[in-house]
Specification:
Layout lengths: L1 E5 L2 H18 L4 E4 L6 H12 L9 E4 L1 E3 L10 H8 L11 E2 L8 H14 L5 E4 L21 E4 L2 H7 L12 E4 L2 H5 L3 E6 L5 H9 L17 E6 L7
Bound molecules: 2-amino-2-deoxy-6-O-phosphono-alpha-D-glucopyranose.
C-alpha cells in the first residue's frame, strides 16, 4: 500500500484527479471503476473542469460503478446511476452507453450480478478503481464480514451504513436496505486501486485499513493484498496513524 498524506480535501481531490487524468491520457480505451458518496465529488468536479478545458477526454473510456441501491431505478434521484449522471457523466464527453452502474431495478438481481461481472471481464478488466471508505471500513457496499474473495452480489446494508447515508434521504423517503455491490475479489482484480478518505470521522477506518490486521471485520484491509493500491488521505483522516 502506498499512503499519500496531503493537507486537505482539495489536495486529495487534485491528486486523485491527476491519477485518473494520467490513465485517460495513457490509454484511449481506459476502463475506470468509479465510486459514489460525498468524497469523490470534488475529484469529479476537477475532471469535469479538465475535460471542458480540453485537457483530458473520456471519449473512448468505459466505466463501471461499484454499487447501487437494490430497489431504485436509475431515474430515482437517490440512485447511484442518477448521482453519477449528475456529478460526472452529463458534463463530460463520455458515451453514456459505455457507463455501467449495477441495475438497481433488475428483475433477477442474482443474474444481474453475474452479468455485471461478465461485462467487466468483456471490457478487459478495470484499469483503475476509485474507492471511498465507510466509517465501518466498508468499500463499495462490502460491509464488515464480507468475504475477502467475494464477487458482485446482493448485500444487506448494516445499520451503521443506513444511518450514515440517511442524510441523503428526506425524512419520509424510502431508504433501501439492500444493494448490489462489486465484491472485494472484484475490486482486488482492478489493476490499480485508488482510495480517497478525508475528515476526522474516517480516521478510525483508515487506521484499521492501513495498520490493522487483514480481516473481513474491516473490508478495506483487503487492500493490503493489492499490488498497486494508493491510499490518498488528508491530515484529519491520517490523524490516528
Ligand atoms: C457509501 C458508498 C461507498 C462510499 C461510502 C462513504 O456507502 N457505497 O462507496 O465509500 O458511502 O461515503 P462518503 O464518501 O460520503 O463518506
Amino acid at each position: 500500500m502506498q499512503i499519500v498524506i496531503l493537507k486537505d480535501a482539495a489536495e486529495v481531490a487534485r491528486y486523485g484527479a491527476d491519477i485518473f487524468t494520467t490513465q485517460l491520457q495513457r490509454k484511449a480505451g481506459a476502463v475506470l471503476g468509479l465510486a459514489t458518496g460525498s468524497t469523490p465529488v470534488a475529484l469529479y468536479q476537477e475532471l469535469i473542469r479538465r475535460n471542458q478545458a480540453g485537457e483530458v477526454s473520456f471519449k473512448n473510456a468505459t466505466t463501471f460503478n461499484l454499487d447501487e441501491y437494490l430497489g431504485l431505478s436509475g431515474e430515482h434521484p437517490q440512485s447511484y446511476r442518477y448521482f453519477m449522471d449528475q456529478q460526472l457523466f452529463d458534463h463530460v464527453d463520455i458515451d453514456k452507453n459505455n457507463t455501467h452502474v449495477p441495475p438497481g431495478d433488475a428483475k433477477n438481481p442474482i443474474t444481474a450480478c453475474q452479468e455485471y461481472e461478465a461485462k467487466i471481464a468483456a471490457a478487459g478488466g478495470i484499469d483503475i478503481q476509485l474507492l471511498g471508505i465507510g466509517r465501518n471500513g466498508h468499500i463499495g457496499f462490502n460491509e464488515p464480514s464480507s468475504g475477502l474473495t467475494s464477487r458482485t452480489r446482493v448485500k444487506t446494508l448494516t445499520k451503521a451504513t443506513i444511518d450514515d447515508n440517511a442524510r441523503f434521504f428526506a425524512a419520509d423517503e424510502y431508504q433501501p436496505h439492500l444493494s448490489i455491490t462489486m465484491g472485494i475479489g472484484t475490486i482486488l482484480d482492478a489493476r490499480k486501486v485508488v482510495l480517497l478518505a478525508t475528515g476526522e470521522n474516517k480516521a478510525d477506518a483508515v487506521k484499521a485499513m492501513v495498520e490493522g490486521p487483514l480481516t473481513a471485520a474491516c473490508p478495506a484491509s483487503a487492500l493490503q493484498l493489492h499490488r498497486d493500491a494508493v491510499i490518498v488521505i488528508d491530515l484529519a483522516a491520517a490523524s490516528k496513524l
